[in-house]
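Subgroup meeting minutes
Present: P.N., E.W., G.H.
Scribe: E.W.

1. P.N. recapped why we're keeping a running log of single-chain structure predictions: easier to compare across weeks, and new members can see raw inputs and outputs side by side.
2. G.H. added today's entry (369 aa).
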Amino acid sequence: MSRSSDSPLEKDFERASSDEEEAIAFLASIIPQKDKIRIRKEIESNPDFAAKQHMFLGMNTRNALRVGGFHYMPYTMDVIWFSWLKKAVNLPEDNIVVTDSVRGRIKKYRASIKRPPLRPPLGPKEIESVKEQLERRHGIRLPEIDVRYSDNITHALSISVGELPPNKSSVTEARLADSTSSWLKLEGLKSGDLDAFDTSKFTIFLPKRYVNYPSGLYGSVWHELAHAAALALDLKDKDFEESFAVTYSFIGLLLGAKEGNFSLEKAFDQIELSIKSAKHSFPATPHHWSLKPIEAHNPGLKFRNRDMTGLLAELDKTIEDIVDTDKEIFEIVQERKLKRYEKPFVIILGTVALALLAISFVLSLLHVV
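Output recorded in log:
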């Protein structure tokens, strides 16, 4: 029997407590596996995760709970969201109990997500044009590209396993292909998307639906082909590579507007959406850092209502800085590695020289005798 003196807030917490098991099963069912992995890693590495993500991932979590029918007072929501999220991302798949009630909540949640309509892909000539522009800009040859479209992903992605060394067996190649396929499936791709998937090619997967079309698709093509260009340029640092790709997606959007593929306003809309996405990504991913080199030349990340020529000049300078800095850092690292082994090497040489002198001296004595 409940106490009549219980405050509305206490009663609200009691109701949330009774819903906890079902709410965790609900969250565990709607969060993609790849996101669970990222969230777990970030929670483990960042003690301030809850505070930093309260208005970002926390807000998304609270909104998802409300859509699923878990309605509580704002204060209650603020207190419980992180605990429930943490339990949901750590709940093993085999332990997720989907009751009829949870199934109904999941259905309601998914129905609330409005998917953009299917859109036609870019033609091979348009993709080849982007590829040729990147090659001309850097005097490079991009690897062989395989472009695929899928209705099972919400964002573009690319992968390059590269050619295996000739001494590697076919068994190793098969294992590598299986590992790659498993990772891609975590990203949302299905078996049909991976038919005849060739791990030796640089493969780009593009969504069939975009919130902003065609600017969103155009920006994605530039972004992923820029990753291929980074491979050809042998960029070492993953953060720099992501920034390189983001910068080129902005360049591509501005050039696309200049060529009349879409309006300049649509280009700015997509750029601002990309900036927002990068700012709100998990700090453990390169996306979170990718804007810093751009900010060096555009401190406020202001694009709208600015001169296109000036913007392109800033972005071109950003690309130069990224490539040059990546090379400089690699050279510094190599130099430090050489210095690390330089002293032991000198000691070894000195020891060998002394040993040879000693041997020579002993032989000379024997010769005298």
